[in-house]
């Protein structure tokens, strides 16, 4: 049975963007659990921390000093994993093996000078400014020689390995297209060819027809917990019109998008009255000069927690096999997020 209460769902669901099956085994979510628990993170950091490498006026490891910035501040990562200075004189690989220089551009984007805030706690206009900064970064980096993709992502919370809580995200402009984007771009191009419709338009249409997984919506933006979610509280935020990247959103669409993104993040924080850890990624078309008319920009938020202090483990099905096993009902988790108030609990 797939009722809105949804606890009895036991089926496989097709993930059309990844072109893979997700096993939904929510019928056994009350089974005894002996997995790893994680403690709540401390919540009261000061507005400025003198040894934070992201706070205004502070020194960074590379020797640079942050300006007394106000609003968004962007700099080249002092510990880049891809960079223009990556070694080019590499040891030759043997036989089938291949290697090449790790070239690209890695940047850090501070959302605000305030050390103690999160994206969910920023004002509407601050989030609009951030979206504008992301637009300009994509435009600039896409034209750099050899850049085939621009990945913007935020890791938030100690459980995803973040030691510095200063609100920030990262940008990797790479000489290859990240695998998830490659898969989504392929699926989107095939769907457009076969149906003349962008794949993501059909995903939105199905969510709007069902409505049980929609978290937030306004004139031009929608947030939903997808039918085929792999994580318990996975949420997508997308413009309703198809844009290959954030760049072509109008000012009105940016405002609308900022409002829905903000409300979505607030609901996640409010769910357990704690900063909600996640990996958030902007999925934008590759910049490899391919035909990406079917690609529909969206943000994916992947929270690793299933309960306030219980991690979703990636194990046999996910790491061993490559497909996800979900222990929760997307309909039930969406209902939980809809029930919490849209005003941040810290206010
Ligand atoms: Zn800081
Ligand atoms: Zn995506």
Helix content: 10-25%
> How would you sum up the major sheet?
9 strands, antiparallel
SSE topology string: EEEEHEEHHEEEHEEEEHEH
- Strand numbers in spatial order across the main sheet: 3-4-6-5-10-11-9-8-7
How are the elements arranged and paired?
Blueprint: E1 10-15, E2 20-25, E3 73-76, E4 104-110, H1 124-142, E5 149-156, E6 168-174, H2 179-195, H3 199-210, E7 214-217, E8 221-224, E9 235-239, H4 251-272, E10 278-283, E11 298-302, E12 305-307, E13 310-311, H5 316-321, E14 325-326, H6 330-339
Parallel strand pairs: 2-14
Antiparallel strand pairs: 1-2, 3-4, 4-6, 5-6, 5-10, 7-8, 8-9, 9-11, 10-11, 12-13
Residues 49, 52, 54-55, 115, 166 line the site of one zinc ion.
Quick structural gist:
The chain is of the alpha+beta class and 347 residues long. Helix content is 25%, strand content 20%. Helix 1 crosses helix 4 (251-272).
Comma- or semicolon-separated keywords:
alpha+beta; 9-stranded antiparallel sheet; 14 strands; disordered N terminus; binds zinc ion
